[in-house]
Amino acid sequence: MLKSSAFYNTLLASDAALLALLGPGGKILNAWPQLVTAFPCVIFQDVNQADREFGDNAPTMSELRVQVDIFTKDAAGAPKSSDLGIAVANVFAKEFFYCPSNGEVPDDTVGVRHRRMVFTRAVSASDLV
Asked: Residues of 92-125 as b/e, b for ≥16 C-beta within 10 angstroms?
């Protein structure tokens, strides 16, 4: 029932709308760099994969939680973090994730926008059949 970071990377990197917004200089990363220097940038982290229900001493349902951080620069022609957020939300919605947390923190001193989104989904054993 568990998903790997390769699953999330493939999910994001195979979406044409997201890739078009990111452009040639944009990046999709599965770990935080020491310093974000490439803009726009989408960083995802597998936050939690907790078993929720059990039957016959085996998990029958798990909850997946993924955090996505989007960084953009305020520049002419650059995509907005809200546009990237919509594209990312659409990618996860296709896999039946919902977004219980979504917010943006602008840093106007350097012209950077940081949007953090959390996606979650319950996966049952029947989903794997």
From this structure: beeeebeeeeeeeeeeeeeebbbbbbbbbbebee
